[in-house]
Write a structure and sequence with these properties.
Enzyme class (chain A): oxidoreductase
Radius of gyration of chain B: 18 Å
Pfam family, one (chain A): PaaA_PaaC
Number of strands of chain A: 0
CATH topology of chain A: Ferritin
Helix content of chain A: 55-70%
CATH class of the largest domain in chain B: Alpha Beta
Oligomer: heterodimer
Number of helices of chain A: 9
Largest sheet of chain B: 4 strands, mixed
CATH class of chain A: Mainly Alpha
Order of helices and strands of chain B: HEEHEEHEHEEEE
CATH superfamily of chain A: Ferritin, core subunit, four-helix bundle
Largest sheet of chain A: none
CATH topology of the largest domain in chain B: GMP Synthetase, Chain A, domain 3
Organism (chain A): Marinicella sediminis
Distance between the termini of chain B: 39 Å
Shape of chain A: globular
Structural class of chain A: mainly alpha
Largest interface: A-B, 25 and 22 residues
Strand order of the largest sheet of chain B: 6-9-8-7
CATH architecture of the largest domain in chain B: 2-Layer Sandwich
Strand content of chain A: under 5%
GO molecular function (chain A): phenylacetyl-CoA 1,2-epoxidase activity
Structural class of chain B: alpha/beta
Bound molecules: zinc ion
CATH superfamily of the largest domain in chain B: Fe-S cluster assembly (FSCA)
Shape of chain B: elongated
Keywords (chain A): Oxidoreductase
Chain lengths: ~250, ~160
Amino acid sequence: MNQDLYQFALRLADTSLTMGQRLAEWCGHGPYLEEDVALTNVSLDLIGHAQMFYQLACDNSETSTSPDDLAFLRDVPEYRNPLITELPRGDFAYTTLKQYFIDVYHLHLYQQLSVSSDEQLAALAQKALMEVKYHLSRSEAWCQRLSLSTEEAHEKMQKALDDLWFYTPELFETDESMQRLMTASVIPDMGAIQTVWQQQTEQLLEDCQLAKPENGWMATGGLVGEHTEHLGYMLADMQFLQRAYPGCEW
Amino acid sequence: MVMSGLTARQVLAWLQAVKDPEIPVISIQDLGVLQAVEITNEQIVVKIIPTYSGCPAMYVIQDEIRQTLAEHGQHEVDIQLLNTPAWNTDMITARGRAAMKLYGIAPPISASDQVIQCPQCGSEKTTCISQFGSTACKALYRCESCLEPFDYFKCHA
Ligand SMILES: [Zn+2]
């Protein structure tokens, strides 16, 4: 069970860390000052969530490790985030829609995890949930604001949707390890999370007058460490200091 | 060894000197971060909870707790960062809220239907400029009466 929880904690932490890292790239590039600050604030929260879940992984690890080691010393095949969170940040519409999809995912996932049979996981999920609700109110408002404004903004949102939609089913994938946790009520039924996620996001897409793409190719691979080439570049950037100066602190 | 006769009450009084590094007029006790102090034979146990998950102030707060206790000759200190209870703005004391307002930051409202008052002139005609502000815990507002922008300490519950 510990090994399963270790793997799941990594899934949560890697997802939040890659999201946070991509958002941090917006620092100094936001559409205006307040929004620049908002993007980096959300980034900071997500990196905070990553740190909490890496600690959970450490507490369930068979070998001695630290949150920093897990973030900075693992390579691409060991990362367990879904592919959507490692995609390049794209334009503001792309970042906004991706953020919305992940916020809704986190909302329902953390709501269920906050009643997990594992007390530590439940407490961390409850803490993260409070912050995710705030993120969602922002990303949802921006989706509407962009989609229902100028033709150009609407077009960019539609383009983002056409690309991102096929990465979303992977969020709800499970493997044998997660299924054991589901049976033990440590984590919720991911299929049920997917159902509520779809209801909520499809309603927003309709409100935003965005057309859901026809089903087709679906992304997969994060759970088994098969990633896009983008994750390698991200880790090279993020891990450089620890790789070049092992154990460096400041 | 902790000096004999030392009480948790005394340690709490010393720790009043430890302020939130981002709002240096409010103590960590009034902020709700400092949850408990326990004295064992070997050490002083200080239990704290984080505000926002990624808040960098938590590191500074731990350093300052150590430093403050060291100034009183206490070096055997164990700081425990707890996962529960989850911090929320209802934990901020009335004294903390008053200090915040004097400092120019509108304190968090408890129910969503209340209005946010301008900390400068008390006007209730205020507008949200950004849901996010200079730090994780704040949002940016503007007063429509005196026209001053101000920080609002976000309601977090
Ligand atoms: Zn005013």
